[in-house]
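Checklist before submission:
- one chain only
- standard amino acids only
- sequence pasted in full

Submission:
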Amino acid sequence: MPRRFLVVVATFLLAFLLYVDRVCISTAKGPIVAELNLSDAQFGWILSAFAFGYALLQTPAGAAADRYGARRILAAVVTFWSIFTGLTALAWNFSSMLIVRFLFGAGEAGAFPGMARAVYSWIPVNERGLVKGINFSASRLGAAITMPLLPLMIAKFGWKESFLILMVVGILWAFLWWWWFRDEPSEQKGISETELNFILAHRQTQSAAGVAPSPLPLSTMLRSTNLWLMMGQYFASNFTFFFCLSWLFPYVQRTYGLTYTQAGFYAMVPLLCGAAGNIVSGLLVDSLFRSGRTTLSRRLPAVIGFALAALGLAMSVGQAQVWGAVFWLSVAIFGADMTLSPSWSFCIDIGGRHAGKVSGTMNMAGNLGSALVALAFPYLIAWTNSVATFFYVGAALNVMAIGLWAATRPQHKLSPA
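Returned file contents:
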């Protein structure tokens, strides 16, 4: 088997675990708020604390991945966040949970920038769209499976014990990654000469292994219109998707009078559609790229995705039956996830050897959107007495993102490829 395929498998499993650990607190909301005596607003701040920690460390984590390599950074951050997954079980009140989840988010910040750096080194440019789609589909599958299965796990072991089990799984992945992976294909044991030559000839650069990239100044990044456009559109994408990770489960359970198990299965459906959206988008990105339509390969999947996301959010409002709401939210999440492969491929395009730092900066902006969702959902309901406001705001952001993508120029690079 080509060694780069094993890299894709390893990052698939990482993205799967990343979202299992991330979404488990939403699924465990019932027993957690009961034991710690939390209000919905306080729980919203706990979700937001994760998103703020995750957002604020994106650019530094990406820069660290560029400098030290995906092997060290991913092993370190997975160990760190796994420890704080376990420490979630030891939180005794609102304040302690807030701190633990902020640090948990800070640990997870290095995951996708680290994977982006590994993709840059290992994956030929005409395969990147599908690889990024596969990685993000894994995250959605992890979240989807968590929705119905974690309640069963909590019923059998308890919510605290479930978090401790997830901690052990994460530390095991980190150990195996450190033992097996190498930052440069030329350093990887067992790689064939044919595959090595193919990777080096098609990854945009043939820089010598171990040569550090020249610095990418913050001033250069701030002058990049492309990067600002990416940050704005990713804010809209995350605003849509993070609803699924934070409030979808309690929303459908309370709005439609579902049992804990029923809510888990309904909340799983949009996430499975998100996984499908990632694969469809990744295939479309690569197909258009191979046909020579480089700019269109980034723009078109994203524009289609944001149009579907806006439609799905708007149509989900006022549905009398749970299946109607879940159908339209599934359309929205399918669309939102169609934007991921072109977004990360675009950042790798313009970032080159600084792919980790550039993609991390985009992800930072996106997760400020996540932090806003965690707070906006309960507060908008309280202020307007209606859930409709939240969904219409999300739809408007998606329409705005279509305009941002129309102005992008993937050929304008931040640094030499």
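Reviewer check: Residues 3-206+218-406 form a domain with the Growth Hormone; Chain: A; fold (CATH 1.20.1250.20).
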